[in-house]
Automatic annotation (TrEMBL):
Organism: Brevundimonas variabilis
Region (Disordered): 1-24
Protein name per its UniProtKB record: Uncharacterized protein
Skewed-composition ranges (Polar residues): 1-10
Regions of compositional bias (Basic and acidic residues) in chain numbering: 11-24
Amino acid sequence: MSSIMTSSYRRQSDHFEPQDIDPQEQRRLRGLLEQIDYTAFVSNREVIGTTLAKVDAGTFQRLAVMVAAARARWVAEALRLSESGSPVTPDQTARLNAFRLAYEELAEVYEGMRRMVERNYLTLK
């Protein structure tokens, strides 16, 4: 089973890909898969377009600033901890982890929205 690396996690690919199938069956299967992909595309475009109808360039800018601020808070916290020269306590580690998780979640949202635009699920105003 292959895996696909995205920006921060691995997603398993479980698509069955027969190797020894006759050409006519391959064409039929490709046509069926294209219909499935098109259905997913239309569904994504419809649902995402309706749910996120008010997204514009300013929305992306505000989200990008939020991601940058979260990254800065995470790194600033690590630097603050390093200045003491003491071992990091479990509470400090938990706090640092919370900053990292916030940054990673926001970065994933930004990348997800970017992919929505790239795949034409979302049109900017």
